[in-house]
Design goal:
Shape: globular
Distance between the termini: 47 Å
Number of strands: 14
CATH class of the largest domain: Alpha Beta
Radius of gyration: 24 Å
CATH architecture of the largest domain: 3-Layer(aba) Sandwich
Largest sheet: 6 strands, mixed
Length: 402
């Protein structure tokens, strides 16, 4: 099993490529939760995520023959970029297999770091099958995204930094996909402190939480989450053993909670993370595990590589959850002034209109009516309820779209 000595040895290899990332106290989230929140900003890492650490440690230990043959891996994006940059810096040829629906920003970034990108399959697991085929056909070394001691040790260097930057830490909260990150961090933190280590998964990719409940590794038939960086169907064999021994608790959060936290980080802390990066803080904010007033908690914000199209969707989802955005549909009589009356009601209730779509041709309405869909900026949940009540009182039948 992975030990502290492995993580400490990795630190020297990783230091040449990876940065020591900041750890900053957050007044905003400390006030919101009552805990003392310190954010480990791994989204500031080279390539935008922690994955460069494990990839660098693995590639640094290749033999001359393995370096000559090159490496191959599968990834939804962050591991891809880490392997690509680490391999290029080491003078090693790399092939990266990514799911066909991987964010275009991550595909472009991976290619820019010098790797050959192959698109295959609908998720990480099907991409991994193709990568193993290339491994056998071309004799390349497979750099596993999580289930490899060298990769786990490299990720564990974050844990060493956390205990040095925040010696008073009581709890470290870490996202889990395949388990490489939390295995490394837990190994370092548990060897150095008495702090708890809490793992967090998205509900739509909760293989570890389910595996722990059943006492053995399970594989989900599919995954469905906006946190694509942790969207794996199963936990690794090696990582599962470390998690069972060194992780205190594993909890889950919903996509809505992830989106809400991501939006809060962006708006209040001016910090951009991807879905997986928001997961640990979401677990704290939503009180998915118990903690005491004033407890020092370090959520590891593991990455910031989010596609702009996804970011738009996530921000909208987050605003909806916070009562800051509302999309409604209603039907008006097709007569002069009907739309103006609706707009005046909205303005009277301090609602900002972003967009209006007016449709007279819908098959679902009467010939003398028009369907209207409006995107509205609102001021919070109470304002949304007030507005919907006012519309109903005025005789409008309103359908909330998001």
């Amino acid at each position: 099993m992975l030990e502290l000595a492995d993580v400490e040895a990795a630190r020297g290899r990783v230091a040449e490529t990876a940065r020591q990332t900041p750890l900053e106290q957050s007044n905003t989230f400390s006030k919101r939760t009552g805990a003392d929140i310190h954010l480990k900003l791994e989204n500031f890492q080279r390539t935008g995520s922690f994955k460069i650490r494990g990839a660098t440690n693995k590639i640094a230990q290749l033999s001359d023959a393995e370096r000559e043959a090159g490496v191959v891996t599968a990834s939804a994006g962050n591991h891809a970029q880490g392997v690509a940059l680490a391999a290029t810096r080491a003078g090693v040829d790399s092939v990266i297999v990514m799911p066909e629906y991987a964010p275009i920003s991550k595909i472009n970034a991976t290619e820019s770091y010098g790797a050959e990108v192959v698109l295959h399959g609908i998720d990480y697991d099907t991409a991994a099958e193709r990568a193993h085929e290339i491994e056998r056909q071309e004799g390349r070394t497979y750099v596993h995204a999580f289930d490899d001691p060298a990769v786990m040790a490299g990720q564990g260097t974050i844990g060493l930094e956390i205990v040095e930057q925040c010696p008073e830490v009581d709890t470290v909260v870490v996202p889990i996909g395949g388990g490489g990150l939390i295995s490394g961090i837990a190994t370092a933190v548990k060897a150095k402190t008495d702090a708890r280590v809490i793992g967090v998964q998205a509900e739509g990719a909760s293989s570890v939480a389910e595996s722990l409940q059943k006492g053995h590794r399970i594989e989900r038939e599919s995954v469905d989450t906006i946190a694509d960086g942790i969207a794996t169907r199963t936990v690794g064999e090696l990582t599962f053993e470390v998690i069972k021994e060194r992780v205190d608790e594993v909890v889950t959060v919903t996509d809505a909670e992830i989106a809400n936290t991501l939006t809060s980080l962006l708006e209040r802390s001016k910090t951009l993370v991807e879905g997986a990066g928001a997961v640990p803080l979401a677990a704290v904010v939503e009180e998915r595990f118990e903690y005491e007033e004033g407890e020092t908690i370090v959520p590891a914000l593991c990455g910031g590589n989010i596609d702009l199209n996804v970011l738009t969707t996530v921000i909208t989802r987050g605003l909806v959850e916070r009562g800051r955005f509302l999309r409604i549909k209603t039907v008006l009589k097709d007569r002069p002034g009907a739309l103006q009356e609706l707009v005046e009601l909205l303005v009277d209730h301090r609602t900002n209109i972003h967009a209006i779509e007016h449709d007279r041709a819908s098959k679902d309405i009467a010939m003398n009516a028009a369907e209207v869909e409006l995107d509205l900026e609102t001021r919070g949940e109470e304002h949304v309820l007030e507005l919907l009540d006012a519309l109903e009182a005025a005789g409008y039948e309103v359908e909330v779209q998001v």
